[in-house]
Specification:
InterPro entries: QueT (IPR010387). The chain is mostly helical. Helices cover about 75% and strands about 0% of the residues.
């Protein structure tokens, strides 16, 4: 019975992370999709440093937010649900690995980096392939990658680090994860 309760609690926590990610993305929907993205929900990409449950939670949340975005007019639709989710999953796994580092300074500097790089590279390519027909691929890719990367960096290195500080303070993360 105890094993079942633990599994249910893990499922609930994964689902809550996904639901919060979706809610935060939809709260800023006009800024959450397309070449210029400022997803407040991306601050949550630091959570894998605190719990492995954030890896499936963020991935599921990203996938659902992108599928809902399809109905809100996101021109990338299913492509975004696949490749955006892949970028989130990759970044979450790398952030989790970095989060295991003992140095708090290293964690604060590097945990937010994988989502910035993964989204710049993967979503930048996705935007270029889907939206820039006939344009010089190299220039279009560079612009898209920079645009996505800058938006991601602003969120991850401000709100993301703030979230890390709050969770780290008095070991608050241990109470919720």
């Amino acid at each position: 019975m105890e094993h079942t309760e633990k599994r249910v609690m893990k499922l609930v926590k994964v689902s809550m992370i996904a639901a919060i990610y979706v809610a935060l993305t939809l709260a800023v929907a006009p800024f959450a999709y397309g070449p210029v993205q400022f997803r407040v929900s991306e601050a949550m990409t630091v959570l894998p440093a605190f719990t492995t449950m954030a890896i499936p939670g963020l991935s599921l949340g990203c996938c659902l937010a992108n599928l809902i975005g399809l109905f809100l007019g996101n021109p990338l639709g299913l492509v975004d649900a696949v490749f955006g989710t892949l970028a989130t999953l990759l970044a979450a796994v790398i952030s989790w690995k970095i989060g295991r580092c003992k140095s708090r300074t290293v964690r604060y500097l590097l945990v937010p980096l994988p989502p910035v790089v993964a989204n710049a590279v993967i979503v930048g390519a996705e935007l270029t392939v889907v939206l820039n027909e006939g344009a010089d691929f190299g220039k279009a890719y560079l612009l898209n990658a920079l645009s996505v990367g800058i938006g991601e960096a602003v969120i991850c290195y401000t709100l993301g680090i703030l979230l890390m500080v709050v969770l780290q303070k008095n070991d608050f993360y241990k109470k919720i994860f």
